[in-house]
Amino acid sequence: MGRHSCCLKQKIRKGLWSPEEDEKLYSHIIRYGVGCWSSVPKLAGLQRCGKSCRLRWINYLRPDLKRGSFSQNEEDLIISLHAILGNRWSQIASQLPGRTDNEIKNFWNSCLKKKLRQRGIDPSSHKPLNEIKAEEDETRMYCSNTDETRMYCSNTGATSEELPIKPVFDTFPLVEIQTCLDSFAEDNVNIYNQIHQTLEPLGQKEGLCDYSSALHVTEKFGYGESSSNSCNWNCSIGSEMNNVLGIEALNWASAEMVEAPTHVQINGVESRERKYRSWQEKQDMESSEDYSTYPLFHDLSGTCFNAPRGALASDFNMDFF
DNA sequence: AATAGCCCCAACCGCGCTTCT
DNA sequence: GAGAAGCGCGGTTGGGGCTAT
């Protein structure tokens, strides 16, 4: 679909909003409410597209917005939530009243990333930097001398430094849990058990990274109200979730430790790996050679364990980690 | 004082998903 | 069921302010 149709029309203003425009939009929404965003600019007398109006309202004009810099508590919470949710800024923002996803995203990119690096933590994986470096070195040592690797380098122009990294345990695998939404409250114990079964193979073993020294995990995440199913779930079993997070989620297992739980889809694919895979697909198209035995990606973390899906209404999908 | 470089953040863009016709 | 319209999200961009030279 791409660009919003209203943006294609002529006479649409872009760029920074003037105080007059802000005033028009604010007074219109205060008086009439939002309704349909595409009709807001016309009704408010603005030469903006609805999308731009929506963004301005959400990120700047909304009366419930909190102004000013982030507190230490907010900062800690963002880091903790990012370790769990990744770049799901809207979900992170839903746990910080008065903060917008855009604001948090900017704060993360401009400030928190640096802070984490200074603490020796990789901001994208939340793993210690030296551990990541060691894994990359190991991978390069391991795969830099195969025929396939040489072929990959010669075909793509990649250097040995740009070789695909051996996939490690995915920070944010998709966990699909089957339950019935109609009996949601009763299923909490069931969900909790499934989470535990899912996570058990990942924790309490040697070689885990203890996060407690690097991250201050707040005692309660403060799961708030939300209209989405996932957030309702957070509300329902927040305390159990907290236990899971405190005990297991902030530890990391190496790929070799991961066994494949039935309901876990581990879908983390490094960009270089993706590049490799597209190259590999191309190779497969051109020759009948079977690359499935290629040693680089025998690792479980590159594998999808899709649980058989039942009827849509009875599926409970949770994006977890 | 001039200017180059950096950083922050508001706003835009493109895409996927849902709802409507 | 198909296509259009609308919404929301995450990634990216670019302009303005600040700092160093």
Automatic annotation (TrEMBL):
- One GO molecular-function entry: DNA binding
Coarsely, its chief localization is nucleus
Localization, UniProt: Nucleus
Matching entries from Pfam families are given as: Myb_DNA-binding
Myb-like domain: from which residue to which, for each copy? 9-61, 62-112
> Which UniProt keywords are given for this protein, alphabetically ordered?
DNA-binding, Nucleus, Repeat, Transcription, Transcription regulation
> In its keyword annotation, does this UniProt entry include GTP-binding?
no
Xref: SMART domains = SANT (SM00717)
Could you name the Gene Ontology cellular component terms for this entry? Answer: nucleus
Location of the HTH myb-type domain: 9-61, 62-116
Q: What is this protein called?
A: Myb-related protein Hv33
Classification from the root reads:
Eukaryota, Viridiplantae, Streptophyta, Embryophyta, Tracheophyta
